[in-house]
């Protein structure tokens, strides 16, 4: 077993730290955010992920996981910090640089450093290695250095962290092999080894594939609306082809990965990535397209009241990072819409104080509901009661997740992204 120091206790770092502790490593979890440290040191968990609480409590109780504000000497250092985009759509590696610099005083011969954060290809070798070599040690000779991206789907992290195959890339072969030895302690999936730059590109490519695929679904939805067919039926039938797997249209692509990671590839070849850039633009246009749907249905109403159901970047999560709902609300508010939102998993959004409220207040006097995140809770709403509170009984379902007959029978007009109009 090893002494492991995990820097960054977010959606990736904390589950990774917990898993490593659960299989017997002695893990020090480090974060620069005092609120996170306070939460964890008081036995609370700051991320909403099924099952994580019991794992964290058990790891802390066992003594195999301790939470600290600073790294300490260890056999292995894992960096799992955010890598957002700058305004110029370049990777912001400042958190990674800070984490690496914090490791330098503790780095010793024979140590392994693993980067998990999603980064532009060539980051591990060309940016991270030189920072760590500030210790006087040489990457690949005196210490091992590998890149090991995660593939976990928020909402199913603990299962996927164990079961999914992984790719690990080393700046040297033995760096990759040493990293595989560590992860094999809890990963049941296959672990493929390659070089660090290839592994970085694999991770960015996976999420870029998903982004482009969603953009295709969003364009098919536009075509379907124009010719009066149901894109959901089109995609379902097309996917019966053994080599076709088209994803679903939606109100836009959010989260901390899918809308960002493709830009890491564009950054490396700006002239050579028109398809990726176009897909990013298609997805970014979806909030505007959805608001245009609402505008068309309530044509002529002055200062319309819009009810947003679901503000997270996707259903059944509590995360609003990069949520496509945010630009939609910004645009609506600019046009003097009265906007209220209801989300059973989110209590407030800093940018929009007072926006989120209970379901009754969110629909009172409203000219229409736009459903943007397909939370399970939305299937059990008292539709009739909601309808009685509204000025106009309109629902726009951008996730095709509601029981449309139930809404139609309660007097609602139903619009579905990518589907011919359903009126009663
Ligand atoms: N979306 C659609 N239609 C779809 C699928 C997704 O509109 O058919 C939208 C979602 O609504 C959401 C966004 O795309 O706004 C991203 O959702 P997601 O479920 O694709 O992605 P994440 O960010 O929750 O997780 C992804 C996953 N990557 C892949 O599936 C290739 C996960 O495995 C990664 O580990 C994660 O990004 C990450 O951390 O990179």
Radius of gyration over C-alpha positions, nearest whole angstrom: 23 Å
Largest β-sheet summary: 8 strands, mixed
**Mean pLDDT level:** 96
Shape: elongated
Side-by-side strand order of the widest sheet: 3-2-1-4-5-6-7-8
Question: Uncertain runs with pLDDT below 50, 5 residues or more?
Answer: none
Which band does the percent of strand residues land in?
A: 5-15%
Care to count the β-strands?
A: 13
Helix-strand string: EHEHHEEHEHEHEHEHHHHHEHEHEHEHE
Q: Indicate the percent of residues in helices.
A: 25-40%
Termini gap? 65 Å
User: In DSSP terms, counting alpha (H) and pi (I) runs of 4 or more, how many helices?
Assistant: 16
Distinct small molecules? ligand SAJ
Structural category: alpha/beta
Question: What does this protein structure show overall?
Answer:
This protein has 424 residues and is α/β, with parallel strands linked by helices. Helix content is 39%, strand content 14%. It has 16 helices and 13 strands. The protein has helices at 13-22, 34-41, 52-62, 94-103, 123-132, 157-163, 173-183, 196-227, 231-238, 261-268, 274-284, 286-297, 325-334, 359-363, 383-389, 404-409, and strands at residues 3-7, 26-30, 65-68, 76-79, 112-115, 144-147, 166-170, 191-195, 305-309, 338-342, 368-371, 394-397, 413-416. Strands 3-2-1-4-5-6-7-8 form an eight-stranded mixed sheet, sandwiched between helices. Strands 10-9-11-12-13 form a five-stranded parallel sheet. Helix 12 crosses helix 13 (325-334). The longest helix has 32 residues, at 196-227. It is elongated. The termini are far apart. The mean pLDDT is 96. Bound molecules: ligand SAJ. Ligand SAJ binds at residues 118, 150-154, 206-207, 210, 214, 247-248, 250, 253-255, 257-258, 313-314.
